[in-house]
Amino acid sequence: MDILQLSNYLDNLLEINSIQDAPQALNGLQIQNRGEIKKIGLAVDLCQATINLAIAKQCQMMFVHHGAFWSGLQPIRGQHYEKLAAMIQANLGLYSAHIPLDLHPVYGNNRTLADLIGLENLEPFGEYDGIKIGFKGSISPTSAENLGKMLEQKLGSQVKVIGQGEVKTVGLVTGGAADIVKQAIQEGLDCYITGEGANHHFHEAIEGNCILIFAGHYGTETGGVKSIGKHLKEKFAIDSEFLHYPTGL
After folding, report:
1. Same domain membership, residue 215 and residue 131
2. Using DSSP, how many helices (H) and how many strands (E) does the chain show?
3. How many separate domains does the chain show?
């Protein structure tokens, strides 16, 4: 399978052309290559470090959540040139999926995080630009502290728990979606999980009587790329490797 065939499959799987994203986000095939795709490097972020890892691991393609193009038209120079030049010289293609990967009902970041904590009775939750991007549901009763420890262990990232008490109902949206804590409060959820937030979200959560857990932007968004890699292995026998380069954020 070459990269054009594979990207066409991914476009349909992730519904790239029908899902709205940030105005300057570019979803889909960003950099083409030549030849057969035998191994894919999976990463949260496209950066020089993950590019170097992909080349060292002899990947022919990268599948990432945060791709190479975010600022609209831009000159190819400086670090932007270095990244693209390294990929082209190594015949390394690039496919990126942002919001389409966040909200995919089977392989998405939010679904994989929901499965990770054993969230049941799933319903769409967390409106972003008119789309409910995350999930809400119920878990076996546990304390906020224990839920935070479980996330820390399973995600391998630092977790910040704001508030305390028993947790039975949870809403979650991966990445930088702390503003959605307002919706969790309005819906009377015990807890809201996201990646990162700002100082004022602490007060919103405490005053709204909703436990707020920051489990890391990077940490909460590792699940989607891994899930896609597993699916492609099962579907097409294409090998993949997760290129772990945590930001600690």
Report:
1. yes
2. 10, 11
3. 2
Q: Are 63 and 144 in a shared domain?
A: no
Q: What is the pLDDT of residue 218?
A: 97
**The two structure tokens encoding residue 179:** 């503003």
Question: Which residues are within 8 A (CB) of 216 and not within 5 positions of it... i.e. 6 or more apart?
Answer: 155, 157, 158, 159, 195, 196, 246, 248, 249
Tens of pLDDT, residues 14-52: 999 999 888 888 999 999 999 999 999 999 999 999 999
Rounded to an integer, what distance in angstroms lies between the CA atom of residue 110 and that of residue 177?
A: 12
Q: Are residue 204 and residue 113 in the same domain, yes or no?
A: yes
Side chain identity at residue 238, one-letter code: I
- Read out DSSP for 143-178? EHHHHHHHHHHHH-S--EEES-SEEEEEEE--SS-G
Residue 58 structural domain: 3-100
CA distance 209 to 159: 19
Backbone angles phi, psi at 21, to 5 degrees: -135, -175
| Contact present, 225 and 242 (Cβ < 8 Å) | yes
| Nearest Cα residue to 66 out of 111, 19, 102 | 102
pTM of the model: 0.95
- pLDDT, tens digit, for every residue of 107-130? 999 999 999 999 999 999 999 888
Q: Is residue 232 part of a domain?
A: no
**Which CATH number fits the domain that encloses residue 190?**
3.40.1390.30
User: Does residue 136 sit in the same domain as residue 210?
Assistant: yes
